[in-house]
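Lecture 7, part 2: worked example. A protein chain together with magnesium ion.
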Amino acid sequence: MTERLTGGAPLGLPMEVTAPGLPARVRIHEVGPRDGLQNEKMVVPVEVKADFIRRLADAGLSTVEATSFVRPEWVPQLADAEQLMPMLEDVDARLPVLVPNQRGLSRALALGVREIAVFASATESFAKANLNRTVDESLAMFAPVVTDAKEAGARVRGYVSMCFGDPWEGPVPVAQVVRVCRALVDMGCDELSLGDTIGVATPGHVLELLSLLGESGVGADRLAVHFHDTYGQALANTLAALQHGVTVVDASAGGLGGCPYAKSATGNLATEDLVWMLHGLGIETGVDLGRLTATSVWMAAHLGRPSPSRTVRALAGTTSQQEQ
Ligand code: HMG
Ligand code: MG
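Predicted complex, written out as structure tokens:
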């Protein structure tokens, strides 16, 4: 298919044409093994997970979110965190993990984890569905986790879900999002990731949130963006965030993902689609797109269905077969 589209010239890489006002380098925070696999019906064997993470690191991803230390009954797909982490000791990447509470933190620290993420919600409905807590109860649950993690020398990321819309509550007032972000920064989070959990954001909305956060003292240097691609807006939203100065972007290899507690959430922005855009803009990522694509094709075979990523499908030459 690639050959048919390009008249025979193989296009394994985008043509590089820079654009003004963009960063020289972006750090991709790869979430496939966590945000992707937590949403799969099948539990992927722990050896396959370890191989997946190793392959992602070998493809040049410097940060790979590995798993979650949540209550295993809530996310059985990631209940093997204790088996997985020791298998990754020689992986050359930062390997953050999700931790909701002090029980999760002690499990993670006992395994030598150096980087954790707490995960708040901008809305009451999702806080209840995902954490069995109100927004304020969940912030109170995170405060000692952040303090203790930092005392133990760990880096802490704070996620905020439902920043742009909520499947139960509809539109989410920006001020409500800013309040939760501010609370996480005041607690000591080193970085915030703004989640469009159900993929409804559009670029103007992204810019409005980023500028209100800036006015409240949370600058782009502390922010990451986490887009889901439900309405095909993830790359447009990412570009808007980059133009605003954000340099950390979450993405999921092959577009794996969703969220088990937000049924309308489809896949995350696919890492390959992101890398194609960034490399086309001359932005460094350190990622080898060919190796990354091969990893997603390999993972798709394990999961028994093709990757939804346009870039994976184009590079793997499967677009025509799937669309016939
Ligand atoms: P709960 O049911 O209220 O639990 O869950 P609890 O606090 O009442 O504790 C009950 C029992 O669970 C206790 O045991 C605890 O020790 C145990 P008992 O004393 O009865 O024997 N327990 C644990 N065991 C192991 N590890 C733990 C743990 N915690 C408690 N960490 C809780 C509350 C927060 C734990 C639960 O709601 C939970 O685990 N939620 C996590 C759900 C989740 O992982 N969701 C997906 C991630 S969020 C996401 O994907 C969004 C994101 O991608 C960004 C975006 O897209 O927006 C990040
Ligand atoms: Mg997510």
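The longest strand covers residues 115-121. The mean pLDDT is 93. Keep this in mind for problem set question 3.
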